[in-house]
What we know:
It is a single chain. The chain is built from one helix and three strands, in the order E-E-E-H. The model has no long low-confidence stretch (mean pLDDT 86). The chain has one helix at 42-53; strands at residues 6-8, 14-15, 27-28. It is of the alpha+beta class. It has one domain: H/ACA ribonucleoprotein complex, subunit Nop10 (Rubrerythrin, domain 2, Single Sheet), CATH 2.20.28.40. The N and C termini lie far apart (34 Å).
Amino acid sequence: MRWKLRRCVECGEYTLRDKCPLCGGEVRAPHPAKFSLDDKYLFYRVRAIRQSRH
């Protein structure tokens, strides 16, 4: 499922467009990824997060 609501990375403005109407910046979906206990790639994500902290 693809979300329609998006948020500008630079100014934080919410929009439905592909670019921010105020600053022209990049927009991304503001919603977190779905959580699943059966996630096949959980081990790799946790390892990447731990490595990025050091």
